[in-house]
Structures are given as C-alpha cells and as structure tokens.
Design a protein that fits this description.
This protein has five helices and no strands. It is mostly helical and 157 residues long.
C-alpha cells in the first residue's frame, strides 16, 4: 500500500478520535435511556455504538501501517498493540491525569479532583497489567503440564 500523506493520516486520526468518542457517548446515552425506561431508544443507541465502533476499527486498519492513532506507536500484532497501550497508560497515569487533578484542585473543584485521582490509580493499574502481559508475551512459552508429560516420555494413563 502506498504511504499515506501526513494530511490524510492526520485527518484519519481526527475522525478516529471523533468516532471513538461517539461510541462512548452512544453507550452512555443507551444506559440513560434504559434507566429511564426507554428500551427501544436504548437499543437504538446501542446499535449506533456498535456501528460507529466498526467505523473506528476501519480507521485503525487504515492507519495501522503508519502508527496507532492515539500513541503514534507501531501497531498491528499483539506485542505491538500491548506496547502502544502501555505507552498510552503510562502517559495518562504519569502526566495527563495528574495534570488535570492539579488543575481541578487549583480551580477549587475537589469532587472533580477526587475523581481524577481515582482515575490516575486506575490507569496505573492498567499499566501494571499491560506491562505484565507485555513481559509474558516476550518470554518463550514453557510447556504446560500435559505438554511436558508428552515431551518427556510420560503418559496420561
């Protein structure tokens, strides 16, 4: 495939972000409609979220040869996807959320600051999980108990 121009890639990153945000909005709207007893409207919002999610996936596919639209890291196979996800979680846990928390405190929004502090911890937990999985993917697979029994001449009898 021919290399995308920076203008096209930038535009695709922008519409990816918008579509991803729409998925979350529609999912939230579906939950509100369901709580309010509007089942048919909730189903419509859920269908829209799924449909728009497919569109966002298409944008990632188009950008995959360049980089992840969020982190600008190379993606495609699981190891690369884990590394890009860990990079995003690291930035969010160590920069984005702490900075927003400080701003909320400075502006006197203690409830918002408390929420953002919780999210900082949440992102740190995500980072730990992603790092552990990345380490596991990088290590050669040890044979499981049944595999070891077969490879060392043992039997299942």
């Amino acid at each position: 495939m021919a290399q995308l121009s920076e203008g096209l890639a930038s535009g695709l990153r922008s519409v990816f972000a918008a579509e991803a945000a729409s998925v979350q909005r529609y999912t939230y709207f579906a939950q509100v409609a369901e709580i309010e007893g509007h089942g048919e409207i909730a189903r419509l919002f859920t269908d829209l979220a799924e449909s728009v999610g497919c569109v966002a996936h298409g944008h990632i596919d188009a950008l995959q040869d360049i980089a992840d639209p969020h982190t600008r890291k190379t993606v495609g196979e699981t190891r690369l996807n884990l590394a890009a996800s860990a990079a995003a979680a690291l930035a969010e846990a160590n920069d984005v959320y702490p900075r927003l928390t400080a701003t909320a405190h400075e502006e006197g929004h203690t409830d918002v600051a408390s929420w953002l502090t919780t999210l900082t911890a949440f992102k740190q937990a995500h980072l730990a999980k992603l790092d552990a999985l990345l380490t596991a993917v990088d290590q050669p697979h040890a044979p499981g108990p049944r595999q070891a029994a077969h490879t060392d001449g043992g039997s299942d009898d």
